[in-house]
Inverse folding.
């Protein structure tokens, strides 16, 4: 039988059969270790119904090391407008990471009831103008959830974002039920307490899954080479070929030599996005040096 791994606890895998929608608890063949592969959530597998053993792992479209998940088609980046405040540097790192994977990005702005509309619009417009889909949410009130559902249909999506931004609340709102625990906000730090401890896929509709994952925001940005970073800021691309130098870093070159810097000066590229590009570039440079 064929199915998708939706959960992994220790050496036990929960596999959903897409035909009959039944969930099977399976072990993995020991032979997988001999070829250096371990089944992970998101893997498409063949398994024996009689023995409840995974026999084959199909080739992966993509694979993320931490947390371990395969074959995702979309990353949903959740930021909150307050408690915690928006971390646009982290968001821009994650967007670059998604671009490097060739995976679609969806940005969700949550807790829109806690700030003035003009604060939301500033962030909304930056990313909408680049070409990203952006959804505004008040997850606790379930406002905007139907719009979010439309953007999830037919996708295997992973929710990503800092603790406390409301990922578990969003999943519970999507299902109109308590399917995953919601974290409290620390009164002292106003930061979230991590409640999700394992990777799990939840089926929303036919061929539509969403995953809540622990620690996704701590992925290794070092997997991107600093020389390639500008290719993953997609609003840079129309200008990069007009730079005077091949291999332009878009940082140290003079404005008249760099079309990306000129575009930033002409407000064709967001100032905050450009500044975050410079910070990420320096971070990658220091990692490489170290």
């Amino acid at each position: 039988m064929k199915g998708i791994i939706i959960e992994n606890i220790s050496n036990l895998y929960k596999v959903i059969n897409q035909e009959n929608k039944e969930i099977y608890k399976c072990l993995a063949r020991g032979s997988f270790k001999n070829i250096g592969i371990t089944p992970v959530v998101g893997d498409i597998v063949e398994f024996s119904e009689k023995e409840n053993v995974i026999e084959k792992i199909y080739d992966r479209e993509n694979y993320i090391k931490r947390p371990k998940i395969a074959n995702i088609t979309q990353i949903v980046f959740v930021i909150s407008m307050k408690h915690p405040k928006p971390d646009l540097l982290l968001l821009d790192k994650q967007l670059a990471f998604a671009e490097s994977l060739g995976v679609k990005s969806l940005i969700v702005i949550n807790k829109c009831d806690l700030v003035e509309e003009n604060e939301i619009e500033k962030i909304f417009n930056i990313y909408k103008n680049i070409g990203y889909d952006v959804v505004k949410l008040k997850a606790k009130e379930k406002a905007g959830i139907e719009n979010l559902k439309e953007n999830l249909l037919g996708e295997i999506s992973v929710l990503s974002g800092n603790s406390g931004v409301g990922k578990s609340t969003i999943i519970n709102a999507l299902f109109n039920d308590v399917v995953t625990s919601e974290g409290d906000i620390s009164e002292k730090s106003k930061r979230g307490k991590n409640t999700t401890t394992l990777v799990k896929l939840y089926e929303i509709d036919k061929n539509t899954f969403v995953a809540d994952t622990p620690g996704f925001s701590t992925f290794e940005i070092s997997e991107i080479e600093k020389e390639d970073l500008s290719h993953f800021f997609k609003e840079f691309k129309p200008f990069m070929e007009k730079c005077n130098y091949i291999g332009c870093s878009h940082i140290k070159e003079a404005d008249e030599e760099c079309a990306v810097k000129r575009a930033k000066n002409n407000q064709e590229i967001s100032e905050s996005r450009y500044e975050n590009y410079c910070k990420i570039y320096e971070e990658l440079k220091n990692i490489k040096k170290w």
